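Input sequence (287 aa), recorded before submission:
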Amino acid sequence: MANTVLDEILETTRELDSSSVSAHELDDRMATDDLLDIVRHRDLLEALAAEPLDRTDLEARLGVSRATSHRFTRWLDERDLAERVDNRFALTGAGQAYADAVSTLERDLRAATALAPLLESICEAHREFVVAPFADGTVTTASPEDPYAPVTRFGRLLRESETFRGFNTTHMLPPGLAESAERPFDGIEAELIYLPEVVDALFERHPERLRDAIDAGHLTLRTREALPYGLAIFDDRVGVAGYDDRTGTMRVFVDADSAIARGWAERVFATYRDRSDPIRNRNGTES
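Predicted structure, token format:
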């Protein structure tokens, strides 16, 4: 393949969010003090984003005095972020956008904190796209007390699923660790993308099982010369795995069931599938 994996990751990144514009590309950047001022008023923006409120309800919702509520509403009015309708304060379109932006910022920062082990393990070009889809995901990390916790989590999700798609997943179930590692494709419809040498190793370890699964149409194998993190798409959840660079062992597995996570995973898998090669199942036919 002519392109390096980094080139293709960057291209995938552009495809996933082709309309994004970095703040650094804008002609006039917002002053830091203005940004801080907006964040300081997040409770106000979030309260009015939920519903328009009159002054009494606003004071009760935020637990502030009448003087403070006057200061808040004056701040909104000076920036055209709210208007008074039927004696209640309602966010304008800009105000709603500010409220959404503050909420998104907090969600992403909280997610980045929770996903820190994963973000250290995956390629830089995809970090920002993993945060939002997996903001509410389940994070399972390896520890000295339980070094195989991520593997155990992955194995449970695999056993509960009738279908499985993904790439770079062989580290998720090390040979001999679990029963399913010795029966890797039984009772499941799978489409997987591996490095060529990994496919060779799988055929050496499970030749008959692989041939039978491929011939029966239960397994499709494809190869690529390079792959990033591990991606797993189950029936009800999707997951991303980060590995130790030296040992290849799984350091962290993050999984989620949100629509945005599944949409992200489906698009990433489709992109890498389109840039992978079908293998022949050792009988001369493509899998």
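Checked by second reader. Strands lie at 82-85, 88-91, 138-141, 163-167, 189-194, 219-223, 230-233, 238-243, 250-256, 277-278.
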